[in-house]
Amino acid sequence: MNENWVEIKNTALKWIEEAGEMLKDSLHNSLSVNTKSNPNDLVTEMDYKIERYLNDQILHTFPDHNVLGEEEAGADIQSTEGVLWIIDPIDGTTNFVHQKFNFAISVAVVKDGVGQIGIILNVMQDEWFTAIAGEGAYLNGQKLASVTETDLPEAVIGLNGRWLAREKRSGDQSLHTMVRKSRSVRSYGSAAIELAYVACGRLDSYISFRLSPWDYAAGLVMLDEVGIITTDFQKRKPSFLEKSKILAARPGLHDQLLHYVHNHEGFDY
Ligand code: 2AM
Ligand code: CA
Ligand code: CA
Ligand code: CA
Fold first, then answer.
1. Tell me, what's the ipTM?
2. Cα 111 to ligand 4 centroid, rounded to whole Å
3. Where Mg(2+) 1 is bound, by residue (predicted)?
4. pLDDT tens-digit series, residues 81-97
5. Does domain 5-143 have CATH number 3.30.540.10?
6. Does domain 152-261 have CATH number 3.40.710.10?
7. Chain centroid to CA 33
8. Assuming Cys at both sites, which of 50, 95, 124, 182 could form a disulfide with 99, CB separation 3.0 to 4.6 Å?
9. Hey, whose CA ends up nearest to atom 19 of ligand 1?
């Protein structure tokens, strides 16, 4: 079957717009917040509510598609055969709870293992990052330019301070050296937003030591469209089904950064 990706993207945009309104409305009420793997790993009733809403819309409209989500959807999925939606109902739940700002809905559509659509909505900023494979990436309808090469001394890197603390314990210094040699680092608390920021040039790179497909699937489609190189720390293409380390960077810079992170394979939370 030949899918009409433009039509599917436009349908998804309507659902995501609705979901974004649900999230904005929820900020007026008190939220039930729980922890998952550790005390810093938060989940709210809205994470479940938004994922269920998107899951139900997708399966109602496209009964032969599959859905993989962070909270509940598709926990048994082991293959990217057919059409697979990969969704993160709230990326940046800690921001959602603590800052009520800088959180996103991230939706990707993948067919037979190839990313076709990527949508990231920065909910409170009303910023829509969208991409269809081969058709370019857009920010609020404006086409994003292809990126050019850059070097570490001119680079602003998205990086969570957690990983520097982790390196300190390990005795290694290469990440610290990388930060010192860079122009600056930033940490926004949402992997999807940070990847979108690399796509539109606000960041030159984003690095994370442990992410899941719903954190980066939409970003991958977008970054490919503007010429950003996105791999794990061994320069492999990140998986749509398994956790991965993520190094997204402009050409030239990507190889320079690999040198500083490639020996951090064992790093986790
Ligand atoms: P989340 O908000 O959807 O959980 C925080 O720096 C970024 O890392 C967010 O994009 C967050 O996604 C992601 N992340 C992935 N695994 C995480 C974990 N175990 N705890 C906290 N954040 C996690
Ligand atoms: Ca989470
Ligand atoms: Ca996430
Ligand atoms: Ca999430």
1. 0.97
2. 22
3. 70, 88, 91, 215
4. 999 999 999 999 999 99
5. yes
6. no
7. 22
8. 95
9. 41
